[in-house]
Every structure is written in structure tokens, then in C-alpha cells.
Amino acid sequence: MFEYDKNIPDPKRGDFLISEPFLPDPNFERTVILVCEHNEEGTFGLVLNKVTDLTLNDVMEEDFSFLGKLNVGGPVEHNTLHFLHRLDRPIEGSVQIAKDLYWSGSFEEIRILIETGNIEENDIRFFVGYSGWSEGQLREELDRQSWFVKSGASSAQVFDLDADRLWKSILKEMGGKYKVFSNYPADPRLN
Q1: Quick one: which of 117, 127, 134, 188 is 20 to 30 A from 85 by CA?
Q2: How much is the average pLDDT of 35-57?
Q3: Kindly report the CA angle at 147 between 122 and 35, in degrees rounded to 5?
Q4: Does domain 16-190 have CATH number 3.10.580.10?
Q5: DSSP state of 4
Q6: Chain-centre distance of CA 36, in angstroms?
Q7: Helix-strand-coil split of the chain, %, nearest 5
Q8: φ and ψ at 95, to 5 degrees?
Q9: Can you tell me the mean pLDDT for 175-187?
Q10: Is 25 left (phi over 0), alpha (psi -120 to 50) or beta?
Q11: How do the domains of the chain map onto residue ranges?
Q12: Residues near 32 by Cβ (< 8 Å), separated by ≥ 6?
């Protein structure tokens, strides 16, 4: 049997949190979370691999020509909308997560880019809700081996990898025992 890491580092902005293969929380089963903020007050992230059947038109009062599916960012505040983008230029108020990956910013600016056809569906992802941990809460979960941390997210991983295979792909990329974890069945009783 493989041993988990004893000293998993705290994540930082731009890192991935990858749930361990048998995490019992259905909100986070086989999820990959992009850490958007981590500081002494807590951690904020967005689940990258839980796609819904909803579009912006299903959750907003005004109509949008953007037909991309919304993602579930996490179990907290499903009445909030968040977004990640990779545009040639940052949006006012956006936070840089990686070289060409941004979180949030002016929704009005995004709306104009959508309506004028100046943003492609594969360059922005919208999320309802988010994943959040209060001060020390994530550290406790890391110490219980509930999460793996992979540093250095890229926009290609966030936007170009298929959501259904993201968890497995990231673990394989990490190599070693993580590659083995990627092949664990969702239900070991079926093995």
C-alpha cells in the first residue's frame, strides 16, 4: 500500500487541490479545485470539474448570447457567480492566478465582450458558488490527507482539459504514486 505525504504544503494562489480518491464528501468527490486565494483568513477556490446543464440565461435576468455551461464552483453560496478567464488583456479588477489565467473582474466589461463577440466560450468559465475554508480549516483537511496539492496551474489545464477527465489527468501528470491513485476505481467494491 502507498503512503500519503506526511507534510503537504499549504496551497497558494494558482495551485490545484486534488481530492484524494475516496474523499467521503459528495461535494468534493474526485474534484480539482483551483485555489484563487489563500491567506491567514482562509482559502477561496473554484471546482473545475463539475459542469452543470445551466447557462448564464438560466441564472441571470438579462439574456446572454454566451451558451457555455456553468460549473459548480463549490457548495458555498450558490447564489453567487464567479468566473475565470484567459484574455489577451486583463479585465479591470481581475486577479492574476497564473501567467495567462485570471479570476473575477468587471462583470460589465465581460458582458460587453460577450455581446460584441470579443470573447470565445473556451476563454471564460462561469461558476455558481465557490469552495471556501475558514482559517485553519483547510490545514486540518490537508493533515487528514483529504487533499493533494499541485503547484503551478496553467490556463491550458483549466480551459483545455476535459472536465470529466481532469481529476485523473492531473494525478497522472503528478506521476509516481499519484499516477497509481488516478486509476483507483470510484467504488473499490466493484473492482
Answers
A1: 134
A2: 95
A3: 40
A4: no
A5: P
A6: 9
A7: 25, 30, 45
A8: -115, 125
A9: 80
A10: beta
A11: 16-190
A12: 16, 17, 18, 19, 47, 48, 49, 166, 167, 170
Torsion of CA 137, 142, 143, 144, to 10 degrees: 90
Q: Which of 17, 160, 14 is nearest to 97 (CA)?
A: 14
Residue 128 CA: distances (Å) to CA of 10, 14, 37, 84, 106: 25, 20, 17, 12, 17
pTM above 0.85, yes or no: yes
Identify the residue whose cell numbers are 459528495.
Answer: 26
CA–CA distance, 19 with 13 (Å, rounded to integer): 17
Which set of grid coordinates corresponds to residue 65? Answer: 448570447
**Residue for cell digits 503512503?**
3
pLDDT of residue 187: 60
Q: What is the pLDDT of residue 127?
A: 98
Helix (H, G, I), strand (E, B) or coil at 23: coil
Q: Which of 184, 189, 134, 178 is nearest to 3 (CA)?
A: 178
Q: Which residue has the cell 484567459?
A: 86
Q: Residues 131, 73: contact at Cβ < 8 Å?
A: yes
